C-alpha cells in the first residue's frame, strides 16, 4: 500500500469536491491584501493612473484587482507589462513590483507605457498560498476560457494591447515550501506520486522555448547579480529539473504550459525566480532583486 505523503486525499486518486473542500477549510488569512497592497497602490494614485480590471468573488470575500498605468499614456509608445503575485505566497513579486513603480517607474516616462499588475492573486496573497480558492494554480491556467478567475481577468486586461507589448516580466519566487507543501499538494490533488526535488539557492530566470531571447535574459541576470547571487545548476546541470541553457537561465514553453509570461506576445519575456529562504539573502534583497530585474529588462528592451 502506498504511504500517504499529504494529509488530504487517498494516494493514487485525484481529489473530488470533498477533498477540495477539506483543503479549502485549512486555508487561513495570514496577512492583509488591503493593508499591504491596496494601501501602497492608493499612495501611488497621485503620480500614476490606477484602474480596476476585475474583482474576485469568493465565499471568503471580494478582492478588487488593480493595475497601475503610466500617466499620460501615449499610444505611439511600446507597452511594458510587469506582473507579480500570480502565486500569492511569493511576496517579493508583489512588493518588488510596487517598489519598482514607486522608485523607478518615473524614469521611463516618455519612453514606454508601463502597465503593472502587482498582485494577480490576492486571495492567495492573504493566505500565503500558491493556488486560488478553487485549488487551481493561476500560473497553469492562462488559457482560453480559463477556469481561474485571476488568470482570466489578467488576460482580458492584456487582450486589447496585444501586438503592442515590447516586454513582459513576471515576478516569482521559489521557496522551501514549494518542496514541503505545494508540490506534495499538487501530486495529491492530481492523484500522482510525489517525487522529491531540489530547491535552487539563488536567483534564476525562465525564458520562452518558443521565443528565446538569450541576450535579454543575460542582461536581467547581470542586473540582478549586483543585488543577490545567481542560482548554480545542480549536479545534473539542471535547475528545478530543467537544463540550464545559460548562466541562471532555464526554458519552458510558456504558452503551452499556460504560464503568465506567455500572454502578451511580447518580443522580450521572462519569469523571475528568487529564493527568499536562502541564508545568503534577506527579504529586502529579494525585493531589490525583483526591482533590478525589471529595470535591467526594460533598459535592454528599450535599447534593442
From TrEMBL:
Look up the domain of life of the source: Bacteria
- Residues of the Peptidase M14 domain: 29-301
Task: Locate the active site.
Answer: 273
Spell out the family assignment given in the record's similarity comment: Belongs to the peptidase M14 family.
- Give the protein name, as stated in the record: M14 family metallocarboxypeptidase
What is the protein's species of origin?
Answer: Stenotrophomonas mori
Amino acid at each position: 500500500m502506498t504511504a500517504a505523503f499529504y494529509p488530504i486525499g487517498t494516494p493514487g486518486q485525484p481529489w473530488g469536491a470533498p477533498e477540495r473542500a477539506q483543503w479549502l477549510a485549512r486555508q487561513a488569512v495570514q496577512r492583509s491584501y488591503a493593508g499591504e497592497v491596496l494601501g501602497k497602490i492608493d499612495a501611488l494614485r497621485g503620480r500614476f493612473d490606477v484602474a480596476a480590471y476585475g474583482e474576485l468573488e469568493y465565499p471568503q470575500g471580494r478582492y478588487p484587482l488593480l493595475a497601475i498605468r503610466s500617466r499620460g499614456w501615449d499610444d505611439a509608445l511600446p507597452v511594458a507589462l510587469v506582473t507579480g503575485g500570480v502565486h500569492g505566497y511569493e511576496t517579493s513579486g508583489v512588493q518588488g513590483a510596487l517598489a519598482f513603480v514607486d522608485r523607478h517607474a518615473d524614469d521611463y516616462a516618455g519612453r514606454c507605457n508601463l502597465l503593472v499588475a502587482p498582485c494577480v492573486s490576492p486571495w492567495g496573497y492573504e493566505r500565503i498560498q500558491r493556488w486560488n480558492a478553487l485549488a487551481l494554480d493561476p500560473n497553469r491556467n492562462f488559457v482560453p476560457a480559463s477556469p481561474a478567475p485571476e488568470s482570466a481577468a489578467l488576460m482580458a486586461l492584456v487582450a486589447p494591447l496585444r501586438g503592442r507589448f515590447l516586454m513582459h516580466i513576471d515576478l516569482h519566487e521559489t521557496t522551501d515550501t514549494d518542496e514541503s507543501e505545494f508540490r506534495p499538494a499538487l501530486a495529491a490533488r492530481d492523484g500522482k506520486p510525489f517525487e522529491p526535488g531540489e530547491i535552487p539557492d539563488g536567483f534564476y530566470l525562465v525564458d520562452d522555448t518558443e521565443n528565446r531571447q538569450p541576450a535579454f535574459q543575460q542582461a536581467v541576470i547581470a542586473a540582478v547579480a549586483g543585488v543577490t547571487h545567481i542560482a548554480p545548476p545542480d549536479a545534473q546541470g539542471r535547475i528545478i529539473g530543467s537544463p540550464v541553457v545559460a548562466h541562471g537561465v532555464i526554458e519552458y514553453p510558456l504558452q503551452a504550459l499556460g504560464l503568465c509570461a506567455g500572454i502578451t506576445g511580447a518580443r522580450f519575456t521572462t519569469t523571475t525566480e528568487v529564493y527568499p529562504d536562502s541564508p545568503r539573502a534577506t527579504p529586502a534583497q529579494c525585493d531589490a532583486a525583483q526591482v533590478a530585474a525589471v529595470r535591467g529588462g526594460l533598459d535592454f528592451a528599450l535599447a534593442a
